[in-house]
Target: Malolactic enzyme
Amino acid sequence: MKHGFELLNDPFLNKGTAFTTEEREKYGLVGLLPPCVQTIDQQADQAYENYLTKADNEAKRHYLMRLFSENRTLFYNLFSKHLKEFMPVVYDPTIAPDIEYYSERYVDSQYACFLSADHPEDVETSLQNAADGRDIDLIVVSDAEAILGIGDWGTNGVEISVGKLMVYTAAAGIDPRRVLPVILDAGTNRQELLDNDLYLGEHHRRIDDEKYYEFVDRFVACAERLFPNLYLHFEDFGRSHATVLLDKYKDTYPVFNDDVEGTGIVTLAGILGGLNITGEKLTDQTYLCFGAGTAGCGIANRVLQEFVDQGMSREEARGRFYLVDRQGLLFDDMDDLTPEQRPFARKRSEFEEGTDFGSLLAVVRAIHPTIMVGTSTVHGAFTEDVIREMAAHCTRPIIFPLSNPTKLAEATAANLLAWTDGRALVATGVPSDDVTINGITYRIGQANNALIYPGLGLGVLASKARLLTDQMISLAAHSLGGIVDTTQPGAAVLPPVSRITEFSERIATGVAQEALRQGLNREPVSDVQAAVRTLKWTPTYRTLDA
Ligand SMILES: NC(=O)c1ccc[n+]([C@@H]2O[C@H](COP(=O)([O-])OP(=O)(O)OC[C@H]3O[C@@H](n4cnc5c(N)ncnc54)[C@H](O)[C@@H]3O)[C@@H](O)[C@H]2O)c1
Ligand SMILES: O=C(O)C[C@H](O)C(=O)O
Ligand SMILES: [Mn+2]
Model:
């Protein structure tokens, strides 16, 4: 057992002023702490008061990160008491500037694992060093080529791995000792980082694909070998790698790509939530994706699969999907489509000659979408003209501007509701305030993968699933139904973040049951609900091992 400063400096074991008199005597802490012994609730109250004195969300985040570095139990205790308030501070959108200025603001490695493609021979040692003897069940790994919508941030992107894991613990009770944030430094193409002496990553451009895939392969194989129960979460990889990597590993290991799959699940859940409100059928909808990249195509595929699951042929269902990217509406005669876009590309012969598809407005005018999802990173792209045009052809347009952080969102909830006189069913990527129009208060769902991935991960871990299958993913999307009271005027399409711990458990149980039904559990699990509950870690102090 650690003693003295070594114990105080271990955030997994540290209790700060809550070390009891006996513990202080036993573990060499006498004289190292102020005399008063506090309870964790007193510590949390005090920390919260301190937090409230901080001037803005960035300062608040820095304060919380310090607490996280020093005492994880207290950090999560406090987080659990202020979940809704802390989510946008700890996570998106406030995490974005902390990624941009990571190197300048660096104070602590936060127990993350830093892997460099320049030293592939160090992968195993680095993972072992970072795990420091802990059994690791969950890794969030990023190569930071496409952080949120803010682009390539190289090693600075480690913050997203750390941040996503914080949400796993806060929402689903994943034991913080059993997780590992990992950053793969494969270079960066952001010139301002390469020119910046303070930048803490490798100072070269991204490596070529051959070396890149070799490096990722080495990491995956090594992590899987060192941590046999690992569930591996990929985050914010670039458009040309994200789906390739997912497809490469998903039939061998339990891997998850948050931007492709997590976003697909939460968006489908939001669409199903919207249709619960209107009573309309999914298979009657026309779908427009604006920004057909990693998330855009991931969502389109998930929603398409739901059309198929609801009885429509894949071919007919595809006919309802329109993808718009930089080129405008995507056609099959274009030679710059990505492999993910190609199956959705339309034929020019479907339309009258001379139809204009160059702008979003023109596409909306031509196809009359009933669902429009934005994952383009183009701030304000859902203009009043576009929305009024869409709303002229359907009663309750489903409109999800999902680009993050706030400064990149395609529209605000307030504008979407104002321009449609309250008819739009809206969800946004980051939290939105309620909107009141004509006396009705509209609650805005947050279609952020954070609503889903913690519960999904808990379900995979509780069932000891050896793979994450399409059926488990579909189940997760369906498990958010029935939580919101859709008879209330202004009801949200998704349940509120304030209830995330409750519905994460529900997602986990459903997903774990599905894994068992498919016979994917590596070990027998007799009671799924009990397995989920047992796995959950609670933020209270434990007795230290002798
Ligand atoms: N809410 C969520 O849970 C969630 C999840 C994942 C991604 N996102 C957001 O979605 C956005 C995209 O992320 P990604 O990982 O898919 O990135 P990506 O780079 O893979 O995709 C973005 C796509 O938008 C296209 N685009 C850029 N400018 C455009 C324009 N002017 N018109 C039309 N298309 C344009 C790009 O060509 C690309 O195909 C980001 O802002 C990200 O934060 C949100
Ligand atoms: O990180 C988020 O807030 C959601 C998503 O994974 C994104 O990349 O934007
Ligand atoms: Mn992401």
Summary: The mean pLDDT is 97. Residues 258-278 form the longest helix (21 residues). Residues 146, 148-149, 239, 259, 263, 266, 290-296, 324-326, 375-378, 402-404, 408, 429, 447-449 surround nicotinamide-adenine-dinucleotide (ligand 1) (CB under 6 Å).
